[in-house]
Amino acid sequence: MKTNKIVTIGDSRTGKTSILSRFMSNVFDPTHTTSVGIDWFSKTVFFTEDGQQRETKLFLWDTSGQERFKALTPSYVKDARVVLLVFDLNEPESLQQVVFWFQQAQKAQTNCTYILVGNKCDLERKCTAAEIDQVKIQCQSDKYYEVSAKDGTNIQTLFTDIGKELYKMNKQEEDNVQPLTIESKVDKPSRGFCC
């Protein structure tokens, strides 16, 4: 079974680290400085599926949006199951840059799900619905969430939905595993003598 690796990518100052901090610890730090390099966390999400309590462990990668780290995106995204394309709803340029981040991620040739995430929905919106829809199409993303790391809006929903989807994918992969059959050929002992 594959690791449930989830990678956040997007421009600097879009709130990638704040989204993960809100999810991991239910904390928002307005004085947080820009991330440098990469960091990762793990957390288990719990949910109900088919009337049963289920869980999925998520491995979350927080990447830097700084210019000098952009070329490393394909190596970060390698083996990811989900890529969160994060932009700031109040910075239209960060939305347009999501297309660049998507193209960088595509270089990893990873078969993964892309989810568009508009952060800072607690503030006045400057990105239009039409612009967001266009970027969704360009980034092959059929899922879109508006969240606020500051007040927690939709953060839990985003990661619980991801956990449910990964649970289903993992279950399907387990169900499709074929048992390994090993044929044993045992040679008959020869009738020779040994001294």
From TrEMBL:
Pfam families: Ras (PF00071). This is Rab1a. It comes from the Eukaryota. SUPFAM superfamilies: P-loop containing nucleoside triphosphate hydrolases. One of its GO terms (molecular function) is GTP binding. Keywords: GTP-binding, Nucleotide-binding. InterPro entries: P-loop_NTPase, Rab, Small_GTP-bd, Small_GTPase.
